[in-house]
Design goal:
- There is one protein chain.
- The chain is an alpha+beta fold.
- It has one domain: Double-stranded beta-helix (4-Layer Sandwich), CATH 3.60.130.
- It has 11 helices and 18 strands.
- Strands 1, 2, 3, 4, 5, 13 and 16 form a 7-stranded mixed beta sheet that branches. Strands 12-7-14 form a 3-stranded antiparallel beta sheet. A two-stranded antiparallel ribbon has the order 6-15.
């Protein structure tokens, strides 16, 4: 069984990597061409002229030109190579905040269907320090300036568009969860087995009225040759405060400690500073990400600000059936993931149906 699992981990997709691999092979960095930038801006102008409300808009409302190869490159990098891409020169300069948000909404809708985030079920979120507390029951990281645990988000892809960077700190950190687990299998296979058993996660007080305040899923799953890691330890550490949920086993805690220690190592983790106009897109199933603590400028308009999109993609991989409760669906190519929250209203339901139809996706 141990040898069979190691072979599965070796064959799984996308590629596993260590930090040196990203330094040696920089195809994951993709500057946008002038024609691609102009194609996006023309699509934005068409959307503005249409009068369609942003939360009702799908990819069909943004007729971007000259971006077919760009979209293809993103999916190739995220599904077949290292599981990440950083686009440079996303054309945000000289745009108003509303136009930046609209352009990013339109572009991410060409990648897939936006998924809700948080209690307010937002289909796009600002990552900005508004005084939140990260390490607390109900705590989230995006609204603080704290250093974050290595984690994944609730979607196939997560996109972060940098609008303003911090005065200091705020360094983005990424590593290959598959590489770490593959090495763990060689050194401590019993810990990988523990990670493949379901454990409890808190919904951090963001559950919908029809949901329990917790759910179960394994940290690691493999389905049809595809690896997936679902690790958000800040949610795991508070799960047993809910009646009906229990804490991880000793072996599961040891395995997560193993991952945390590896992720802090320069051998596995690649650090990058996102600058205004940088768009980082990660495959959540095979990468873990984090961020260092940061200090903001005093001026409100210069405070660190990013737009975050959680995206279900039409070409997504299958997931282990044990992950169904977490993602609401484990089948490939379905609209899945996200935090339904408490404000998933009719407008968002209609958007989801129309965006799914644009991509030919089933709704999980």
């Amino acid at each position: 069984m141990s040898g069979d699992l190691l072979e599965l981990l070796r064959q799984a997709q996308p590629k596993s990597w260590r930090a040196e691999d990203l330094r040696d092979d920089t195809q994951w960095i993709r500057p946008m061409s002038d024609s691609e930038r102009q194609g996006l801006l023309k699509g934005l102008a068409s959307f503005r002229a249409s009068g369609v409300a942003l939360e009702q808009a799908t990819g069909s409302d943004f007729p971007f030109a000259h971006v077919e190869d760009l979209i293809k490159d993103i999916h190739t990098q995220l599904r077949q190579r290292f599981g990440l891409m950083v686009l440079k020169r996303f054309p945000i300069e000289d745009l108003s905040e509303d136009d930046v948000k609209a352009l990013y909404w339109g572009f991410t809708n060409h990648l897939g269907v936006l998924r809700p985030q948080g209690k307010n079920s937002a289909l796009m979120n600002h990552v900005k320090n508004v005084g939140g507390v990260y390490r607390a029951a109900g705590g989230r990281g995006y609204n603080t300036n704290a250093e974050l645990d290595f984690h994944v988000d609730f979607s196939d892809y997560v996109g972060l568009l940098c609008i303003q960077d911090a005065k200091s700190g705020g360094i983005s950190r990424i590593c290959s969860s598959r590489r770490i687990v593959q090495d763990m299998q060689q050194q401590a296979p019993e810990l990988v087995y523990a990670l493949m058993q379901p454990l409890y996660y808190s919904r951090q007080d963001e559950e919908a009225p029809d949901e329990l305040p917790y759910y179960q899923t394994p940290v690691v799953g493999i389905a049809d040759g595809w690896f997936s890691c679902r690790l958000t330890r800040n949610h795991i550490r508070y799960a047993d405060r809910h009646e009906g949920a229990s804490a991880p086993t000793a072996s599961q805690n040891l395995a997560m400690d193993w991952i945390d220690e590896a992720a802090q190592s320069g051998r596995y983790t690649f650090d990058m500073r996102l600058e205004p106009g940088d768009l980082q897109i990660l495959n959540n199933h095979v990468t873990l990400h984090s961020r260092t603590a940061y200090e903001d400028y005093e001026e409100a308009e210069r405070k660190r600000s990013l737009l975050r999109a959680w995206i279900a993609t039409p070409n997504s991989q299958p997931l282990s059936p044990l992950m169904r409760e977490a993602f609401h669906d484990h089948r490939a190519g379905t609209v899945r993931g996200g935090i339904k929250g408490q404000m998933f209203d009719e407008t968002k339901r209609v958007y989801t149906e129309q965006a799914a139809a644009f991509h030919g996706m089933l709704i999980g």
